[in-house]
Design brief:
By secondary structure, the protein is of the alpha/beta class. 20% of the residues lie in helices and 32% in strands. Helix 1 runs parallel beside helix 2 (83-90). This is MBL fold metallo-hydrolase. InterPro entries: MBL_Glyoxalase_II (IPR051453), Metallo-B-lactamas (IPR001279), RibonucZ/Hydroxyglut_hydro (IPR036866).
């Protein structure tokens, strides 16, 4: 089956099978959050990006092989509703951006800074700190040695624009700057984007619209 990245709450997960990594995307909760289970194919170690909601659904997706770690992309409550239950059930280590950790009511084991590497088995993910949607939002980049990069953007980048900056021009300018300099300027058009809500996209599909986003201010 070809991966599409289109999932719905209550529907099946979609699985993106790469040579070294399996990415399972599932939608959960009343705000249609995306959660991603990453499995290293060499070791079967697993990492969850955003224990957003529906702990039973997430634990069912994780399965019997356990969970090594959970990364919370940012402090907004819709991205951590199931975090306490998932950690209690699995004993997973928790990660979050340093500036957002205090807003997440589950203790963060590892505070993440810009450029830090988070590992799942033999696979390395590079964290980038993007300021604007929240002070401590992080995205994770997997630079696939066998293909193009993959980036998990939380609520910082979606098809059609950057994340909500609540009509704050300073926050919008900051987020646009960070998205452009840390994502668009360094990654190719083929880069696959996995957002915190909704469908996936690629940087190539979004790149022509950057001037439009800047002009409209959101």
């Amino acid at each position: 089956m070809t991966y599409s990245g289109r999932v719905t709450v209550g529907g099946p997960a979609d699985v993106h099978e790469l040579k070294d990594l399996m990415i399972t995307k599932i939608a959960v909760g009343p705000m249609d959050n995306n959660a991603y289970v990453l499995r290293c194919r060499a070791t079967d170690e697993q990492l969850l990006i955003d224990a957003a909601n529906d702990a039973d659904t997430l634990l069912g997706t994780i399965g019997d092989d356990g969970l090594a770690s959970v990364v919370t992309t940012h402090r907004h409550p819709d991205h951590w509703q199931a975090l306490a239950a998932v950690v209690e059930a699995t004993g997973a280590r928790t990660y979050a951006g340093r500036e957002d950790a205090e807003g997440i009511p589950v203790p963060t084991d590892v505070l993440v800074d810009d450029g830090d590497v988070i590992r799942v088995g033999q696979v390395e993910l590079t964290a980038r700190h993007l300021v604007g949607h929240t002070p401590g939002s992080i995205v994770l980049i997997y630079d696939d040695p066998h293909g193009h990069p993959h980036v998990f953007t939380g609520d910082c980048l979606f098809p059609g624009g950057v994340g909500n900056t609540h009509n704050d021009p300073k926050a919008f300018a900051s987020l646009m700057h960070d998205v452009e300099t840390k994502i668009f300027d360094v990654l190719p058009d083929e880069t696959w984007v996995y957002p915190g809500h909704g469908n996936d996209t690629t940087l190539g599909a979004e790149r022509p619209h950057l001037p439009e986003w800047r002009a409209r201010g959101w």
